[in-house]
Amino acid sequence: MITIFHNPNCGTSRNTLALIRNSGVEPEVVLYLETPPSKDQLQKLISDMSIPVRDVLRQKDTPYEALDLGNPQWSDEELMDFMVAHPLLINRPIVVTPIGTKLCRPSEAVLDILENPQRGAFTKEDGEVVVNEGGLRVHGH
Fold first, then answer.
1. Structure letter (DSSP) for residue 122
2. How far is CA 28 from CA 5, 9, 115, in A?
3. CB of 96 closer than 8 Å to CB of 37
4. How many CB atoms lie within 10 A of CB 35?
5. At what angle do helices 39-49 and 76-85 cross, to 10 degrees?
6. Longest dimension (CA), the chain
7. How many C-alpha atoms does 22 have within 13 Å on its Cβ side?
8. CA 106, CA 120: separation in Å to the nearest integer?
9. Strand blocks (E) in the chain
10. Which of 10, 14, 11, 17 lies closest to 2 in space, CA to CA?
11. How many CB atoms are located within 10 Å of the residue 92 CB?
12. Four-point Cα dihedral 115, 116, 120, 121, nearest 10
C-alpha cells in the first residue's frame, strides 16, 4: 500500500505519482489541499521522514511570509498547527510506502522507497530522463 499526499497542480507531485504508477502500483492519492492531514497524522509523517518540521514548510506561493513563519519564535507544535490550518504550507509530495516515508523533491527520490522496480523508461514533464528503457535509474539521479 502506497499513499501520496498529492497536489495535481504541482509538476514534482505529478512526476512522483507517475513514477509510482510506473512501478505497477496504483497508490492512494490524498488531495491534501482538500482533505488535509490531522495534526496527529502530520506529526507522524514528519517523524517518519526524520526531518525537521521546518523542512516540510513550503515557502513559495504560500502564506509563509504573511505569517512570518521564518521567525524562530514558532515552536514545531505551532508550525504544525499552521500547516493543518493552511495546507498550502505543507510541502509536496509526501509519499508513504512499506519501506519508508519521504518528501519526494526531486520526484525521483521516490525510487528509494518503492518496493517494485520501474516497468519501463520514465521521462519527467520537463524532458529529463530519470529511468531508462530497462527500468533502471539514470546515473546522476
1. E
2. 9, 17, 16
3. no
4. 9
5. 120
6. 50
7. 26
8. 19
9. 3-6, 28-31, 94-96, 101-103, 122-123, 129-131
10. 17
11. 23
12. 0
Cα distance between residue 11 and residue 125, in whole Å: 7
Which grid cell sits at 77? 507544535
Active site residue 10: yes
- Among the listed residues 10, 96, 104, 114, the single catalytic one is 10
Residue 10, number of CB atoms within 10 A of its CB: 18
> What's the length of the chain?
141
Query: Model confidence over 117-140: pLDDT tens digits?
Result: 999 999 999 999 999 999 999 976
Query: What pTM was estimated for this model as a whole?
Result: 0.95
* CB atoms near residue 61 (< 10 Å): 9
Place of cell 528509494: 112
Residue 46 has phi, psi (to 5 degrees) of -65, -40
pLDDT tens-digit profile of 27-42?
999 999 999 999 999 9
Q: What are 59's three cell numbers? A: 515557502
Domains and CATH numbers, the chain: 3-114 (3.40.30.10)
Check if the beta carbon of residue 20 is closer than 8 Å to that of residue 4.
yes
